[in-house]
Amino acid sequence: MPSCRIHTLPYSADPTRYFEKIRQAPGAVLFDSGRPASRRGRYDLLSAWPRARLVPSAGETGSGFLQRLRQAASSLGHIETPGLPFAGGLMGYLSYDFARRLERLPDTTHDDLELPDAQLGLYAWAVITDHQAQTTTLVCHPSLDGRECERLRRLFRTPPPRSTAFHLAADFTPDLTVSDYRAAIERILAYIQAGDCYQVNFAQRFQAPFQGDPWVAYQALRQVCPTPFAGYQSLDGGGAILSLSPERFLSVTDGQVETRPIKGTRPRGRSAAEDRLYADELRLSAKDRAENLMIVDLLRNDLSRSCRPGSVHVPQLFALESYPNVHHLVSCVRGELAPGKDALDLLAGSFPGGSITGAPKIRAMQIIEELESRRRAIYCGSLLYLDAGGRLDSSIAIRTLLARNGRITCWGGGGIVADSDWQAEYQESITKVRTLLATLRAL
């Protein structure tokens, strides 16, 4: 079996130093663990110049598109690369609205952002940084021409181009008035009281016109909000996806599956004492624990569609994780893929993540469609990579911005349950994005 060509590069704790060299290339994509400030993630991956781009065609079903992804990844051929998470395969995103291709859902929201439901590239090389081993490696699939591999090796040893600037042309404005937000929450509470659902994740959107380079914005954002499932994906026309997500969606390694849902949020305190108070309040909150447990149960059900019977379990429940702007309650659900199932089967049975829909999932998504006037686009979708050998890692695209057609868009939301207070929920939706918006205002 042919093996990958592996070239050692100088280790960098900050992946942006390498990504800067390719950020303007077609299909440039970065999966960013938030180092050196964030300590939870292990790997950074980046690549560009995909061999093929895959976007759903009009009328194509979700299962049909996922089968095309499966065929594209397998066309490279599986190459064992011990100790590395990727040796050629797919990188890209699925938008929240890709769910319309998997489930029967109403279609009433306005698609003013016009982002394709999915866009993934087939990549035959990647630069991978392993922060645990403190190594950075250029990995070239054997199907990649040797001259191209040598060009890349030289490229990553040259100085990066200079960054330009980024600034907002006006301040962010929300799509909803406070009274509109309150009316939507009251409608959700009425649905819950009527027994339609237990929980609905409702979000509001913020937009501003901008000028300049979204990469400059991303670099500033990751400095103030380092997270383990961050990412940057360039789009046609100079746009980009800027994600500072703290939440893993699905990972698959050697058939072992993991998802890490986040439910429960408090702001960081202005002093150490206030910070501990918020953290303790979240840990002990019966409402937030119940909300988290609802989603854990939903995800156990989703994973069971593709996992071996009896293998799905919950090794971690209600753990506290703290980030620069918020505390979160995080749980972990694991399982083992059933014989005959692969990572794309798991994705089809679980997308979009239950932590950002509600429960039961389909009814919650119907209510989201009714009450959110515009499509979510990348928000609550997923950034993911799928190795040709079946390894998958993916995020839930929260704390995520879309820079497209001269406007930058950000969303903030939360799970609404029977005892939710609309004012507290409104404040939480702002707390989650306050640091991101303030950072961009300051550029």
From TrEMBL:
Molecular-function GO terms, alphabetical: 4-amino-4-deoxychorismate synthase activity
Listed Pfam families: Anth_synt_I_N (PF04715), Chorismate_bind (PF00425)
InterPro entries with a match to the protein in the record: ADC_synth_comp_1, ADC_synthase, Anth_synth_I-like, Anth_synth_I_N, Chorismate_C
Domain Anthranilate synthase component I N-terminal: 13-138
Domain Chorismate-utilising enzyme C-terminal: 179-432
Cross-referenced Gene3D superfamilies: Anthranilate synthase (3.60.120.10)
Keywords assigned: Transferase
EC nos: 2.6.1.85
GO biological process: one example: L-tryptophan biosynthetic process
SUPFAM superfamilies reported for this sequence: ADC synthase
Name this polypeptide is given: aminodeoxychorismate synthase
